[in-house]
């Protein structure tokens, strides 16, 4: 079996379940040693790490609350210290809260929305800034976005959409900043899938599926394949790109 990522070290945030766990498995199968992060699901994260070790690579499960940007440097330091470096960063960790609540809803919890912005946007930026200092030349960064960042489609998702739309611009800017070192920076806009994140309201989900070209919920493994390609040597001339893996939601 070809292992194009043999000898590489990857960090996948939010790797205890869903797309993060599927991505960690895909990178391990390609030969990379993989660190994953979790917030509160220590048992799930430990099981994923154990599974990765069973695939013949080194693996770590590190607790990290991405909403606290000050923790980013220590997270990156832990990966480098324990696995010997960093070549690949996949910013997958995200939360979706207060779904269906419009901006004029008197009962919306602004503190919860602020935590979502901190996790999905400023927390990702902090990790990229910390990782950029140690990421080896010809490394890879992939940020996980959402088709909702491009096409919202239904009410009650403005804040979530904003966190993902902001990452598009940041991805393209960082792609220019790190290109002289051969580091590529891309985004995968993931679609509807069973990830362990709070599911949409049933009526909202029904409406979102009806807008897809491929009218079904996706499997995380389908998007993990796209991520694995972007971090591979085969994608060395792709940077600043936004790849939709969402069943045609933005088509």
TrEMBL record:
Q: Does the keyword Oxidoreductase apply?
A: yes
Gene3D superfamilies, alphabetized: NAD(P)-binding Rossmann-like Domain (3.40.50.720)
Check the record and name the InterPro entries matching this protein.
Answer: NAD(P)-bd_dom_sf, SDR_fam
- Domain of life, per the record? Bacteria
Record has Oxidoreductase as a keyword: yes
UniProt keyword annotations, A-Z: Oxidoreductase
Q: Name one GO molecular function term.
A: oxidoreductase activity
UniProt similarity note: Belongs to the short-chain dehydrogenases/reductases (SDR) family.
Instruction: Please give the PANTHER family that the UniProt record associates with this protein.
Output: OXIDOREDUCTASE, SHORT-CHAIN DEHYDROGENASE/REDUCTASE FAMILY (AFU_ORTHOLOGUE AFUA_5G02870), SHORT-CHAIN DEHYDROGENASE_REDUCTASE FAMILY PROTEIN
What protein name is recorded for this chain? Oxidoreductase
Q: Which organism is it from?
A: Micromonospora inaquosa
């Amino acid at each position: 079996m070809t292992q194009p990522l043999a000898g590489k070290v990857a960090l996948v945030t939010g790797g205890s379940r869903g797309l993060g766990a599927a991505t960690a498995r895909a990178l391990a199968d390609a030969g990379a040693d993989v660190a994953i992060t979790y917030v509160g699901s220590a048992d799930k994260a430990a099981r994923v790490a154990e599974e990765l070790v069973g695939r013949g690579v080194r693996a770590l499960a590190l607790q990290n609350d991405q909403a606290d940007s000050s923790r980013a440097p220590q997270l990156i330091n832990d990966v480098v210290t324990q696995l010997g470096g960093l070549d690949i960063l996949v910013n997958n960790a995200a939360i979706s809260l207060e779904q269906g609540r419009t901006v004029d809803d008197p009962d919306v919890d602004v503190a919860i929305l602020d935590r979502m912005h901190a996790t999905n946007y400023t927390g990702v930026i902090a990790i990229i800034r910390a990782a950029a200092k140690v990421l080896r030349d010809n490394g890879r960064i992939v940020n996980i976005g959402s088709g909702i960042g491009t096409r919202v489609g239904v009410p009650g998702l403005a804040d979530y959409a904003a966190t993902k739309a902001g990452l598009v611009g940041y991805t393209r800017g960082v792609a220019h900043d790190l290109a002289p070192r051969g580091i590529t920076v891309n985004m995968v806009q993931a679609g509807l899938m069973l990830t362990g994140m709070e599911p949409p309201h049933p009526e909202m989900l029904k409406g979102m599926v009806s807008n897809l070209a491929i009218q079904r919920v996706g499997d995380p493994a389908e998007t993990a394949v796209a991520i694995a390609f972007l971090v591979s040597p085969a994608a060395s001339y792709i940077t600043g790109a936004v790849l939709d893996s969402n069943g045609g939601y933005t088509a």
